Amino acid sequence: MGAWSIFAMLCMVAYQSITGLFANDDIMVQGPLAAYVSSDLSASLTGWHKWTEYIIYGLVGLHIVAIVIYRLRGKNLIRPMITGDIPANELTPDTPAVEDNGKVRLAALLLAIICGSGAWWLIRLASQAAPSFG
User: Fold this and answer.
1) Are residues 44 and 64 in the same domain?
2) Torsion sign over Cα 2, 3, 4, 6
3) Are residues 36 and 55 located together in one domain of the fold?
4) Is 78:64 a contact under the CB 8 Å cutoff?
5) Does 75 lie in the same domain as 115?
């Protein structure tokens, strides 16, 4: 269930991010891609973006409740969430070993570079689409 919880939260945060790219509050703030869609579509995406906030709060709340319940039952999940390691005595015998080598770390670095490049591109796109007040 923990894996499904994390997957749901990641999906909702991704959805929140994508709709936020096109969101527009018609006052001061707009997403970096809002200028590239119609105002009706931007308004719809803004509504979905705001509504999703409550789903994320609910998922995070359920996640915290589950952590507390596990802690009350004697299983500490906070340290493994931070370190990524579960003590060997808490693993089931059929748990496969995790592969952690240079190849995996290089893939993680490349993914971080791709994500950072995407963020940089969006920032540049937003600065080109933003009106100038000077």
Assistant:
1) yes
2) positive
3) yes
4) no
5) no
Q: Give the gyration radius of the chain's Cα atoms.
A: 20
Looking at the chain, how many residues does it have?
134
The chain-wide mean pLDDT, for the chain, equals 85
d(CA 42, CA 21): 9
Query: Which of 10, 29, 26 shows the shortest CA–CA distance to 18?
Result: 10
- What was the pLDDT predicted at 133? 45
Task: Note down the domain range covering 130.
Answer: 100-134
Q: What is the DSSP string of the chain?
A: -HHHHHHHHHHHHHHHHHHHHH-B-SSS-B-TTGGGS-HHHHHHHHHHHHHHHHHHHHHHHHHHHHHHHHHHTT---HHHHHHS---GGGS-TTPPPP--SHHHHHHHHHHHHHHHHHHHHHHHHHHHHSPP--
Domain match, 59 and 25 both: yes
Please identify, among 92, 111, 126, the residue that sits at the C-terminal boundary of a domain. Answer: 92
- Total of domains in the chain: 2
pTM for the full predicted model: 0.65
